[in-house]
Amino acid sequence: MPRFAAGVVRFQNEVYPQKKELFEKLSLGQSPEALFITCSDSRIETAMITQTDPGDLFICRNAGNIVPPHTNYTGAMTASIEFAVAALNVPHIVVCGHTECGAMKGAMNPEGLDELPHVREWLGFAKAAVEIVNETGAGKSEEERMRMLLEQNVMLQLQHLRTHPKVAARLAKGDLQLHGWIYDIKTGDVLAYDEAQNKFIPVDERYATEMARLAASHGCAA
Ligand SMILES: [Zn+2]
After folding, report:
1. Concatenated DSSP letters for 133-196?
2. pLDDT tens figures, 181-193
3. Ligand 1 mean position to 13 CA, how many Å?
4. Which of 84, 120, 163, 172 could form a disulfide with 70 if both were Cys (CB 3.0 to 4.6 A apart)?
5. What is the CA(97)–ligand 1 centre distance, in A?
């Protein structure tokens, strides 16, 4: 029996009973706090990183955490974004890139993608980020350039999000916030883009105010 099938049995016997009430409540509907867009990479465990429960995040994953700019062509990302933003009314959208991203390595070196034509074409949606790194990252090490690309790609996909009509409308209305994150697989660190400083900073700094408010509302001391 595959390991993950055995896992399902363990989930049913040990995990489900502990959260039975939550699962029964979720069967009546969902009201996720965020649309969470990240890479398909197997090393990213969204619920573990964010310590969230089922029902908290509406998740879209693809190679390179990419959001194609809006066109009249209907794709999976387009439909999922529209549903999350206009039907579920999520108040937040997170685009979360990560270190050691194979997709971003491919975007940086597309000549290695001859045998992966669909991957190569898909990574065309990250082309502007690659161009920015090529233009501004000259003389920097390969590692520094990759770091720049991870950040630039997240920024670019946030720009693409703004071209989606329902996202644009909600942003204009002022009840939707966009967030850019980078998850470090090796260290567990998560950096978040801070508009005021125009750079990625640790999550606890970026959301210090929000976290203090949340702790206060839960009656915690910290
Ligand atoms: Zn990746």
Report:
1. HHHH-TTS-HHHHHHHHHHHHHHHHHHHHHTSHHHHHHHHHT--EEEEEEE-TTT--EEEEETT
2. 999 999 999 999 9
3. 33
4. 163
5. 7
